[in-house]
Amino acid sequence: MYNTFKFAFTLAEVLITLAIIGVITAMTLPALINKTNNTEMVVGAKKYQSVLSQAIKKYQLDNGCIGDLSVCNAFSGDGDHTAAWDALKPYFNLTKDCGINTGQGCFPLGVTYKTIHTVTTTVFDNESDPKGSLADGSSMRLYDYSGNCTYDTSRENKDPMYHACGYFTVDVNGYKPPNRIGRDTFRWFVTRQGIIPAGNSDDSTYANTDKSPRCDPGYSGSGSNAVINNGGYGCTAKILTEGAMNY
Question: Mind listing the pLDDT tens digit for each residue in 74-104?
Answer without folding.
Answer: 998 778 999 999 999 999 999 999 999 999 9
